Amino acid sequence: MGVQDKENEEFTLEIERVIAAPRDVVWRCWSEPDLLMQWYCPAPWTVTSAEIDLRPGGRMNCVMQGPNEGERHEVVGCLLEVVPRERLTFTDGYSEGFIPRANPFMTGYVQLSDHGGGETKMVWGARHTSQEDKQKHLDMGFEQGWSAAAAQLDELARRTSGR
Known about the structure:
Elements: H1 3-10, E1 12-19, H2 23-31, H3 33-36, E2 46-52, E3 60-65, E4 72-75, E5 78-83, E6 87-91, E7 94-95, E8 99-100, E9 107-116, E10 119-127, H4 131-139, H5 142-161
Antiparallel strand pairs: 1-10, 2-3, 3-4, 5-6, 6-9, 7-8, 9-10
């Protein structure tokens, strides 16, 4: 492992889950806006809009709305890597068309693989440029929030696959 790899690992947060649905369904839940909106942030927050242009350089934008009036978080991002049914890499460091954005926070990724029995192993992570940003993400509730979202994804993927 090189120095750069060690630094990337040091600033990375990751969760791993087994989703009780086939990989093509889990991929759809990540790549189709109408499905993404149903699970992508932990309740009682909701995703009120989502736009995905599924290609490198394409947009991955969403608006998250909190349960209290005025709570709103807009995420503007760009897809860096799209490997259908296997991997998505996205960042808020660029907007659509690889246009640089001020104050990037993270690069996210999801890796999907068959787990057996029609289930999918999902690895979901966020890479940061500093220990401070990594800690900020932890303080925002990375583990609890994304664990709750992963449970919502599991439920949606089960329903979508007819399980």
